[in-house]
């Protein structure tokens, strides 16, 4: 938790008309002597303390302090109240929520029509009331529909402004949040609309070079997010296309961070698609790009991607060497240079990816040991990853011959699938069911098999 300043900020809440944002000086005082990046890291730590997940970076802090974000979403509000106990949103320089959205917002004066918030931005306000209701009352399909918004709707031909770039960035955060909690299957087709709208903005060009740079980065990250939804839902050809688009965008704009991310995802996809040598090459290319970014955690993840490729090739020595590099880099800790999209990468992910390497090498006992650690360490917020690591554990145990524990792990995964839709996890459970079928007369295995759809080719078994 960030220690409160010596005295309570006395600056009045930051309010603005839609055309003239005013700096949020009260929030700037709360940041104190920390840099925006350091303060963003403190926000992420505070979120973890209360079981929240926010994708906070220095850019977000800058948007708050500039007055661009007049009121935080509900997740950020909970985190800020945790960091600064006893302070209201007004004390922190924010406008009342009802004046930002809803009836109060619709009634706000606008000096000239062209100065109103662009439709794209208005449609995807962070965690809108509609989205919040969908979380409480609807399923994954409702969440996808309510949260992503009609970003791809026809829009007047005009050059993009900073608010449009911010809208694309917010769409990326929204998709990642929903994927973390609910998996990819119900989101992919809906997320394609925002991506088309983002490309339209990119084609229209921007008013300023700084906005153009943000748009290129944002559209590239959005392509990667949509590509990941395709990847995780088994649409490998679609994923490959989206990743290639992101890589092309990175190359055009000279964005090393986006290039590293694109190659990272390409390596992961190549491994899953049975092209391990391509996975190694893509991971190594990602590491070359990432060396300019001063993020040890990013290099650690990329070493794990390389290890996965070596494991697929059956090269145990090269795999172990890459795993050692990954652990060494991870131990150097996080930094302000860590990309925002890496919020998922912690000790649980490190253990889970190592488990996958040992499984590819056929060392089921070691794979199960790391998968068990991954499932135990995973933040509950990442429901999809919890299901994934537990499904990996079930499969590893089944192949190791520990059938009762494998069935128990499989049942735990089935309990999570009400909230998570992932073709990857479903396929892993089906594979585990096939492995356990010869042991169907044992009670735990029989219960697991009774709750899994009959694996293909087992009729009459």
Give keywords:
461 residues; 65% helix; mainly alpha; disordered C terminus; globular; Transcriptional regulator; TPR-like_helical_dom_sf
Account of the protein in words:
This protein is mainly α and 461 residues long. Among the domains are: 1-105, no CATH class; 127-253. The chain is 65% helix and 0% strand. The protein has 23 helices and no strands. It has helices at residues 25-31, 36-49, 58-66, 74-83, 97-100, 103-106, 119-123, 129-137, 140-148, 162-182, 188-204, 209-232, 236-253, 256-272, 276-290, 296-312, 316-331, 347-360, 364-377, 383-400, 403-416, 423-436, 443-451. Helix 14 runs antiparallel to helix 15, helix 16 packs antiparallel against helix 17 (316-331) and helix 18 packs parallel to helix 20 (383-400). The termini are far apart.
